[in-house]
Amino acid sequence: MADTVPDSWRAALDPVLALPQSRRLGGWLRAEEERGMAIFPPKGMRLKALELTPLDAVKVVILGQDPYHGPGQAHGLCFSVPEGVRVPPSLVNIYKELESDLGVARPAAGNLERWARQGVLLLNSSLTVEAGKAGSHAGKGWEAITDAAVAAVAAREEPSVFILWGSHARKKAANVPELSQNDRHLVLTSAHPSPLSAHAGFFGSKPFSKANAFLEARGRGAIEW
pTM (2 decimals)? Predict the structure, then answer.
């Protein structure tokens, strides 16, 4: 796994990738695939969030839980789906809030690569999942790796925005001392955009305008959401 980490993230992630738990994760994933388990996203896409958003380019971090577990949905970016795939319900609600917040017309497609290329790190806590089984790869070792990625952003001098939707994202951020002890960054929290919780505080939270106001005030440039 280590040789697939993009160069900009290597110094931050190499120490955790050298740990036994990370080595066990790689071996476990290989074994699962060898016995015929379908794992999403496929090889070559699992570190796409890190590939599209180099560490020194990160302006905003959005934390998800794990990849979509339906065929053809997951492609390495949280909340995002490839072109031609139906927009999932949580992303539909994200688009609704974006329209309400900034007046941006709801996109017809669910591919968020354009955000990622502008510095929005779309990172799931677990970077793989078994087909049809949400949360199935939680606790297998990905968390330490993605915690290290979040910590690397929080440790930088450049101010960034951390958007935490739902309790899982908030708990993950709480595991990162570099973030909880740092006052350089803006941390935005709300309910998750899932249809089950969006009306409990996600709608009306205005994360996009708040993120842009913070970034512009610090000379980092707004995101074209």
Answer: 0.95
